[in-house]
């Protein structure tokens, strides 16, 4: 199972953000690298089985059109650029309709199922290219994903603590690596973003955030052991009551609440 990750580059300049930024801080562009959480549709045009450019993915997106985002609608990159006042959506780099102007304000280079191994190398390479401000998102409580609950959580679908402990250990090592890179890369601003605790809080306290179901996903692929949607998948009646869209990814509401919690920190 690939670990989910995200690297976000921030370019600073003048813009009007919804989010309250420190005085004198303005962000003009955001670029995302990572796995399926931030893949905005790049895999649509790549040779891979990890695709979601079909319904029910994107059923609640603008016009109900699947775009290759691994959710029912918007995903974290869209919400980040929206909150920062840059634009409404972050496009995929391989989007055939991409315009030069889109590159100036940010795109996603992410690819679903790309894995985690190259994260440090990517960060170092981006620095070599001139990048100085980078957010690195950590690993979520993977033992609480519906796919892992179904596979190893028993009849009660409990969180698999062994997997969660592995995620916490990986986050500790990743945060330490980011700190060490910050020390050896002059003038860099590398920030480790903890998503483990905010997401676990959503899972442990669903009522506080308006969710009713956190153990199962809205998209119900039947006997598909990977719990990813397919063309014949049935979905829940109200996805706003569900934290998870499929076995690995959140609903738009889930992502929005999570992103809001991260920005509050």
UniProtKB/TrEMBL annotation:
GO molecular function: hydrolase activity, acting on ester bonds
InterPro entries: GDSL (IPR001087), GDSL_lipolytic_enzyme (IPR050592), SGNH_hydro_sf (IPR036514), SGNH_plant_lipase-like (IPR035669)
Signal peptide range in chain numbering: 1-17
Signal is among the record's keywords: yes
Keywords: Signal
Protein family (similarity comment): Belongs to the 'GDSL' lipolytic enzyme family.
Protein name as catalogued: GDSL esterase/lipase EXL1-like isoform X3
Originating organism: Nicotiana tabacum (Common tobacco)
Primary gene name: LOC107803031
């Amino acid at each position: 199972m690939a670990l989910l990750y995200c690297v976000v580059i921030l370019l600073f300049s003048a813009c009007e953000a919804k989010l309250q930024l420190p005085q004198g801080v303005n962000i003009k562009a955001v670029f995302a690298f990572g796995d399926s959480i931030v893949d905005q549709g790049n895999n649509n045009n790549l040779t891979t089985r990890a695709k979601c450019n079909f319904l029910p993915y994107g059923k609640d997106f603008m016009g109900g059109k699947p775009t290759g985002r691994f959710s029912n609608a918007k995903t974290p990159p869209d919400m980040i650029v929206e909150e920062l006042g840059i634009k409404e959506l972050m496009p995929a780099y391989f989007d055939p309709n991409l315009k030069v102007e889109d590159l100036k304000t940010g795109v996603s280079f992410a690819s679903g199922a790309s894995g985690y191994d190259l994260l440090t190398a990517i960060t170092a390479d981006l620095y070599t290219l001139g990048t100085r401000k980078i957010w690195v998102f950590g690993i979520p409580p993977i033992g609480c994903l519906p796919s892992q609950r179904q596979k190893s959580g028993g009849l009660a679908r409990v969180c698999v603590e062994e997997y969660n402990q592995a995620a916490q250990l990986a986050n500790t090592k990743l945060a330490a690596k980011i700190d060490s890179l910050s020390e050896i890369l002059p003038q860099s601003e590398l920030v480790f973003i903890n998503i483990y605790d905010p997401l676990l809080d959503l899972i442990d306290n669903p009522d506080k955030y308006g969710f009713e179901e956190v153990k199962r996903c809205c998209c119900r692929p039947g006997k598909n052991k990977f719990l990813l949607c397919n063309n014949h998948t049935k979905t829940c009646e109200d996805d706003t009551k569900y934290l998870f869209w499929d076995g690995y990814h959140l609903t738009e509401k889930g992502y929005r609440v999570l992103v809001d919690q991260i920005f509050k920190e």
